[in-house]
Specification:
25 strands; Porin; 2 helices; mainly beta; 18-stranded antiparallel barrel; 53% strand; single chain; globular
Length: 474
C-alpha cells in the first residue's frame, strides 16, 4: 500500500469538499495537513459551495501551480549486477499544472461532480522528453452523477470507494487503482485513481449497506521509465524489457458489498468483494521479443474493520483475507539438454493482512496519527526442488504523521515518516505550507530516503530531494 514500501509495483487523491472517503465509510479525519503531493485537490478543502451566506463562487474551481523539485544528493552505490553507479539528477521536476473542479447540485437530491488535471512538463523535468506524452498530459479524475433520497443513494461515473479505517495503511483500500510516479507522491491517498463505478447505498435502521459494480476494471499504470522510482528498465540480453498493458480478450467485472453500523463511540463493518489485483504481474517473454508477458488475476476478498473513539483518540483496526492472490516463484524446469533451470513463475496463495493504528488530536492545531500494516501468506510452502518462493512469509510497514498549524492556520508544518518494519526502507518527508492570501499559497518540502543494499529500491539510499510549489486558486 505504501510508497515506496510496496516494492516495484507502479501504483492522486481526488477527495475534496465532499470526500469520497467519508461518504463511503472511512473515519471523518482531516488528512489534508499531511498531503504530500504538490498537485492534489486540497485547494478545495473547506470550500462550502452550498453556503448561502457567502458569495457564490460558481460551479467551477481552478488551481494553477508551478512545481520544481531537485535531487540534491550525490552518492555511489553497487547495483545487483555488481557494477558501480552514481545517482545524481539535479533538477528532476519542473511542471506547470492546472486542476479543475466542477460541482453542481442542480436539483434537490441531485449532484453532478467532475474534476480533471492538465500537466505541462517543462525542460528539466524527467517527463519532458517522454515521447508518449508530447510534453503535456491530461487526465480526468472524477465525473459522476449522484441521486440521493431519504433511504437510498445511487451514483454512477468515475469515482472512488474507500474501505477500511486506518488512514494511509488500510489493507481494505484496494478497490481503486493507484499510481506512484515519483517521490512527490508518497501516500495512498495521493496515489489513488478513480474508476468507472456504479454504487448503491442503502441507509437502514439496523445498519447501512453499500454495494458497487465495476464493469471495466482498470490496472495500475505501467511504471514511467526514467522516473526517480524507476530510473532504469530491466535488461534482457542488453535490451530493455518492455512492460506492456493488459490486452483485454474477455469481459471483466468487479463487485462488492459492505455493511456497517455505528454505535456510541465506535463503528464496525464487514465486507466481501470479487476483485482483480490492481498490479499487473509479469513473466519473461517466451516469443523471442523483449515484451514481458502480462498476467491478471481475480481473487476473493473478505474484510472486517472497526474504530473506537475515546475523547480525542481514535483507534482503528482493519482485517483482510485474500483468497487466490498471485505470488512470485521460481520453478525448476527441464532445459532440453537433460538438465534443469530455474524460471520465474506465478502461483496462487491465500493471504491474511492486518492494519491498526490511532489518530490523536493533541490540540486544535496539532494532530498525530500512526498506522502499522502487516501481512502473512497462509500455508506458504518452503523451498523445494520443485519450487522456490520469492516471497517472505510476513512483511510489514509503518506510517507516522504529524501536523502543526500556526499563525491562525496560515502556516502548516507537517512530517511524514514511512518505514518497513525490518528497517530496509525509510522515507522522511518534511513539508511547510504557507497561505499568502485566500488565492496564493507556497509550499516547500524536503524528502530523505534510505534503502538497504539488498532492497529493490537500493538506488534511493541516502537520497535528498527538495521541492517548491507556488499555487494560485480562483
Amino acid at each position: 500500500m505504501l510508497f515506496p514500501f510496496s516494492g516495484l509495483s507502479a501504483q492522486q487523491d481526488d477527495n475534496a469538499d465532499f470526500p469520497d472517503d467519508v461518504e463511503f465509510g472511512s473515519p471523518d479525519f482531516d488528512s489534508s495537513a499531511f498531503d504530500a503531493a504538490a498537485f492534489d485537490d486540497s485547494m478545495f478543502d473547506g470550500a462550502d459551495l452550498f453556503d448561502a451566506d457567502t458569495e457564490d463562487p460558481g460551479n467551477f474551481r481552478f488551481q494553477l501551480s508551478q512545481q520544481m523539485v531537485a535531487h540534491l544528493s550525490k552518492h555511489t552505490y553497487r547495483t545487483p549486477a555488481g557494477t558501480t553507479d552514481t545517482q545524481h539528477r539535479g533538477l528532476e521536476n519542473s511542471r506547470l499544472g492546472l486542476n479543475i473542479r466542477y460541482q453542481n447540485p442542480f436539483a434537490v437530491g441531485w449532484l453532478l461532480q467532475g474534476s480533471g488535471q492538465l500537466r505541462a512538463y517543462l525542460p528539466g523535468d524527467y517527463e519532458h522528453d517522454n515521447p508518449g506524452r508530447d510534453g503535456w498530459e491530461w487526465r480526468l479524475n472524477e465525473l459522476f452523477l449522484q441521486r440521493s433520497g431519504e433511504r437510498n443513494s445511487f451514483s454512477f461515473g468515475r469515482q472512488t470507494i474507500v474501505w477500511g479505517e486506518t488512514i494511509g495503511m488500510s489493507v481494505l483500500d484496494v478497490i481503486n487503482t493507484t499510481e506512484y510516479r515519483d517521490l512527490t507522491i508518497i501516500d495512498i491517498e495521493d496515489a489513488r485513481l478513480n474508476q468507472w463505478l456504479a454504487i448503491w447505498d442503502h441507509f437502514g435502521d439496523n445498519g447501512n449497506w453499500s454495494s458497487f459494480i465495476n464493469l471495466y476494471p482498470e490496472f495500475d499504470p505501467v511504471p514511467v521509465t526514467g522516473s526517480p522510482v524507476f530510473p532504469e528498465p530491466v535488461q534482457i540480453n542488453g535490451q530493455p524489457l518492455r512492460l506492456g498493458s493488459h490486452d483485454r480478450d474477455r469481459e471483466l467485472f468487479e463487485a462488492g458489498t459492505r455493511w456497517n453500523r455505528s454505535f456510541t463511540g465506535s463503528d464496525i463493518a464487514v465486507m466481501a468483494a470479487w476483485l482483480y489485483e490492481n498490479t499487473l504481474r509479469y513473466t519473461p517473454p517466451i516469443d523471442g521479443t523483449h515484451r514481458a508477458q502480462s498476467h491478471i488475476n481475480d481473487y476473493a476478498l473478505l474484510g472486517f474493520s472497526s474504530n473506537r473513539a475515546i475523547d480525542r483518540l481514535l483507534l482503528t483496526f482493519d482485517l483482510a483475507y485474500n483468497h487466490g492472490v498471485f505470488v512470485d516463484t521460481l520453478r525448476r524446469v527441464p532445459d532440453g539438454d537433460g538438465g534443469s533451470m530455474w524460471l520465474p513463475a506465478l502461483d496462487e496463495q491465500n493471504r491474511l493482512s492486518m492494519a491498526a493504528g490511532f489518530e490523536y488530536g493533541i490540540s486544535a492545531t496539532r494532530q498525530i496519527s500512526l498506522g502499522i500494516q502487516a501481512q502473512r501468506f497462509v500455508g506458504l510452502p518452503r523451498d523445494t526442488d520443485a519450487m522456490q518462493w520469492l516471497n517472505r512469509d510476513s512483511t510489514g510497514n509503518a506510517l507516522l504523521r504529524y501536523s502543526h498549524s500556526l499563525r491562525n492556520e496560515e502556516l502548516m508544518l507537517s512530517t511524514t515518516v514511512q518505514a518497513a518494519l525490518d528497517g530496509d526502507q525509510v522515507l522522511l518527508n518534511l513539508m511547510a505550507d504557507y497561505r499568502l492570501s485566500d488565492a496564493w499559497e507556497v509550499a516547500g518540502q524536503l524528502i530523505l530516503t534510505h534503502a538497504s543494499d539488498d532492497n529493490a529500491l537500493y538506488f534511493l539510499d541516502r537520497d535528498v530531494r527538495a521541492g517548491l510549489t507556488l499555487s494560485w486558486s480562483f
